[in-house]
Amino acid sequence: MNRTFNRYFGLMLLLVVAVELALAQQPPIKIGELNVLSGSFAAYGKSGRQGAQLAIDEINASGGLLGRKLELIQVDDQAKPDVGVQEAKRLILDEKVNFLVGIDSSSVALAVAPLTNEYKIPLVVMHGATPALTEQCNPYVFRTSNNARMDANAAADLAAKLPYKRWANIGPDYEYGHSSWNDFIARLKEKRPDVEVVGEQWPKGGESNYTPYITALVQQRPEAVFSALWAGDLVTFVRQANAFGFFKQIKLFVDPIGAALESIGPLGKDAPLGELFSTRYWFLQSQSPTNKKFVDAYHSKWGEWPSYNAEEHYAGVQMLAAAVRKANSLDADAIKKAFEADGGLTYEAPEGKKWMRPADHQVFEALVWGYTTPSNDYPFVVLKDITMVPESDTVYPTKCK
Amino acid sequence: MTLPFFFLEFMTGLASAASLFLLAVGLSLIFGALGIVNFAHGSFFALGAYFLFALTHGDATGFWHYLPLAVAASLVVGAVVERVFIRRVLNRAEHYQILLTYALLLIIEDVSKICFGADYKSIGMPKGFEMPVFVLGIPFPSYYLGLVGLAAAAALLLWLFLHRTRYGTLVRAVAQDREMLEALGVNVPLLFTVIFAVGIGLAGFGGAVSLPLESISTGVAMDAVISAFIVVVVGGLGSLWGTLLAAILIGEIQAFGALVLPEFSIVFAYVLMAAVLLFRPWGLLGRPPTVRT
């Protein structure tokens, strides 16, 4: 018996060695994904990973990229720039990743971006939305999701058509919150000189008690309130504001990513109704076969509906894969060329066409805005009276060449 | 600022005071009786909130139903922690106690991350308090009034327990002379377990009833323990009324401070603490240390 065991053991050992050798010849292409996995933004890290993983599974099932499998390594950047840089360096130096992707927080995206030059590693941002990121004209930084300026401009165009004059802001006190409000109000005032700003509230990101900000807002008596609050911050704010009857005292609440499933999901029946919300992807919007296939595949794999962050990560990985195929290489300069060639890479995402502007590596795409309304089919509010802002309306000038 | 808004800010401050009082009073009680500086106190505040969130599945309709369960779970945790850990360092030097309770803070933080997840938790207003009440024409969250009521009831019950029951007398006595109590045949170890569990139960209660007010996520325990220490330092360690007074002072200072100088609202509580430490180091209602013989 002992001898049989030894023989089998030897055979197995040989087999393991053979497999290892085969794999060593074709090491996987490693994708390092930075997301927020803890604190009030954690739900985004989860949906981002699920979307990216779905894309990677699909690519691997159809033979991988350049004959190699893709492997995803996700880390928690805690939405802190210093942690993000430290983790990105670890991914590059220890894990030897070929690409960096993801990044939810604008502040983290700005902090990590300089590493791409230092280590010549392409970074594909799929969420962090500060316009400043693609204004740096960084050769190896790409953003496959729309940015906050496009959202804010669209919001201002819609708001300009409404009768409200007294506007106020409540936004998270960091890059994304400030750039969103500045872009929004500048454009709104341009179109409507009669608009007046009655107050600005800047709670810190991850704030747990919004009460002082809510009472201050109530005292300023705005007609409409713009807010770039998102994720857990938005959920907590809405619940505390409900206790004050806040949404009944104002006429309109506008949030460019308010309809993210990571926010309206947990809010359930607590979500405010009739408010003007957007989301970078609304899974019920596009009737295209691409979208249907994606929604079905995502729902059957993860047991939940795809949020915009899930779709943006899915589409971002697919778009990166398209660039790699086109470049037929993993080299940063070849990837850059592939993204830029032929007037910019385009990709048919579940939400519709994505076009990467070659000059600044910013993707432009159509945006979806609508008013929140209760739903019989889903345990969260859905969008109605939807306005689609076409891709061409989202394009703004760039200084990059 | 008009009168109604003044009142609104005042009541908002009172609501945070209620939460602060429930958080800090257990810390004060435990220090007064056991002489333990419980660095992990904020963790039990967070645990109470986590228990309630887990029991209700984040749905506020079950709030009142599950609140007693969340408090009971906190009491049990408190008793177990005292029996297993705290008991072993009662007679040791302070730095052992601080090391142990600080380690507990870190351990509980990680265990709750594993059990409850690292994302934030928040729930809506509890049943019966969904709609605001109108005070002088200004809408005001009715739950804030409820919270103030709950804290006031807790303060009153605690005072009645400490001053009107035999067991309460023992709690006060053990703070002064433990050996004498033991000589009189009182089961002091059991008494310590009860006091610790009650202190932790109060923190858990505070965390649970504060959940509709504030969301909770990792890091809350540390913030909470710092707030709790500010309150007991200002009020006087071991003083029930001092804790109440300090909680109200700090709650109001933060509410009005946020209105006057929003960027510096966090600083005001520290300034108050610094002033108290300089001029009355034993706290507003604490007893100055007597020379020990």
Question: If you compute it from the alpha carbons, what radius of gyration of chain A comes out, rounded to the nearest whole angstrom?
Answer: 23 Å
Number of strands of chain A: 15
Mean pLDDT across all amino acids of chain A? 92
Question: Helical stretch count of chain B?
Answer: 11
Alpha-beta classification of chain A: alpha/beta
Overall 3D form of chain A: globular
- What is the 3D form of chain B? globular
Computed CA radius of gyration of chain B, to the nearest angstrom: 19 Å
Number of helices of chain A: 16
Strand order in space, largest sheet of chain B:
1-2
Terminal CA distance of chain A: 73 Å
Q: How many domain regions of chain A?
A: 2
What fraction of the residues of chain B are assigned to beta strands by DSSP? Answer: under 5%
Most extensive interface, chain pair and sizes: A-B, 33 and 43 residues
Q: Which stretches of chain B are low in confidence, meaning pLDDT under 50 for 5 or more residues running? A: none
From the N-terminal CA to the C-terminal CA of chain B, the straight-line distance is: 55 Å
Task: Please tally the β strands of chain B and state the result.
Answer: 2
CATH architecture of the largest domain in chain A: 3-Layer(aba) Sandwich
- The CATH first-level class of the largest domain in chain A comes to Alpha Beta
Describe the protein's architecture and organization.
The complex is a heterodimer of chains A (401) and B (293). Chain A has 401 residues and is of the alpha/beta class. Chain A has two domains: 25-146 and 286-364, Rossmann fold (3-Layer(aba) Sandwich); 149-279 and 368-394, Rossmann fold, CATH 3.40.50. Chain A has 16 helices and 15 strands. Chain A has helices spanning 2-25, 42-61, 81-93, 106-112, 115-119, 132-135, 148-160, 175-191, 211-220, 231-243, 246-249, 261-267, 289-302, 308-327, 332-340, 391-394; strands at 29-35, 70-76, 99-102, 123-125, 141-143, 166-170, 196-201, 224-226, 252-255, 276-279, 346-349, 352-357, 362-364, 367-373, 382-389. In chain A, the strands form three sheets. Chain A has a seven-stranded mixed beta sheet with strand order 7-6-8-9-10-14-15, sandwiched between helices. In chain A, strand 9, helix 12 and strand 10 form a beta-alpha-beta unit. The longest helix of chain A is centred in the first third of the chain and has 24 residues, at 2-25. With 293 residues, chain B is an all-alpha fold. Chain B has one domain (8-165, 195-279). Chain B has helices at 3-34, 41-56, 63-84, 94-116, 142-164, 166-176, 178-183, 188-210, 220-235, 240-260, 267-279, and strands at residues 132-135, 138-141. Chain B has a two-stranded antiparallel sheet. In chain B, strand 1 (132-135) and strand 2 form a beta hairpin. Chain B is globular, with a radius of gyration of 19 Å. The A-B interface holds A 37-40, 42-43, 46, 201-202, 206, 208-209, 211-213, 215-216, 218-219, 232, 235-236, 239-240, 242-246, 248-249, 266, 270 and B 1, 5, 8-9, 12, 15-16, 58, 113, 117-120, 122-125, 129-132, 138-144, 212-220, 254-255, 258-259, 262, 265.
